[in-house]
Give the backbone structure.
Amino acid sequence: MRQKLEVYFNFAGLKTTWKTEIFAGLTTFITMAYIIVVNPAILGKAGLPIPAVTAATCVSAAFASILMGVVARYPLALAPGMGLNAYFSYIVVMKLHVPWPTALGAVFLSGVIFLLLTATGLRQAILQSIPHELYASVAGGIGLFIAFIGFKNAGIVAADPGTMVTLGNLRAPQTFLALFGVILMAVLLAWRVRGAILIGVLTVTLAAIPFHLVEWNPTPYSFAAITQTAFRLNIRAALHVGLAEIVFVFLFVDLFDNLGTLVAVTKHAGLIDEDHDIPRLSQILFADATATVAGSLVGTSTVTSYIESAAGVAAGGRTGVTAIVTGLLFLCSLVAAPYVSMVPTAATAPALIVVGSLMLHTLGEIEWKKPLIAFPAFLTLVLIPLTTSIANGLGFGIIAYAALHLATGKFNRKDWLLYTLAVLFLARFIYVGGT
């Protein structure tokens, strides 16, 4: 049985082992486990019962990650997406006064549309129409994005009204420990220690205890709480024509955020082939779309691929076993959620910084001396972190790529879908403005 699994997941071809994959799954889980606490806090603002959302978060992340690992065999972990959960609560429910069951119905419909787009091959065509040079800039841009989040969470950089950002208080215990964590992880990586990031996270967590930065407030928990949100979605109400825009936003943002994450992680793992195609792309997109449908059914906002999967890749994860291990840990965290919340920001921030730095290696693949390629890649690279949106950065890159090729007579009819995407992105930016 073990040998058959190793063949199925191509352990020999990807030069990996069970130990490496399990360590990678642990690493991915520990870097994205914050969603167990954060997602219920955000969706709770919309009136969803927090115990129910906690269960829904763990169950949806477990189901989606295991499905991705088994079906697509990629080290991509999934969970309710940050950003989309905020849109769900603060815009759809609180601002537009849409009841949360109806909002869950809109999430469900977006997932169904995803499945249809995947079945027809349109989603795959969209992904394959993106120039591979933009793949590299997306990976680098996300690296800068998550590194900046790490620097901010660690307190190494802070907001400043004059210069926008400035150096934080390096003497603060949390900041000092985060810097220690960055150095420790970097040294362990330089020594080629397996599980370097996970070891760093756990070490900083232990070191944070004397500084009273580790909080542990265990509370009784019952899985039965999930019944308060499971299958409570209102699909009929979501079909109302006035909610078409909400369904579109869930669909549009998830499509391109997922695309960016998918490209970044697979490229960082070296899983994109020589023709710049992603093997088993249909299976990846099927798992992602199914995860969103399942998430809405149990009671959470859009489920999507997590860029923190790059942490597992950096730890050596190359197969679906990494995602399966992450999913199983999410399932176990139903009873261990109080312990998971013990990991302080000072321990997770260094992981984001280190992983972000590792993702910049793809920038060497961009021909920076060719303006037709360099300028769109540059816009993608810098606007992902500056606008805190993968979709925005990719949108500007695609528009610039199309405009430059049209203006210089380099238009190619076979790239019609790319130009269609450019028009759609342009229309989106005109419609939403600066919001």
The chain has a mean pLDDT of 86.
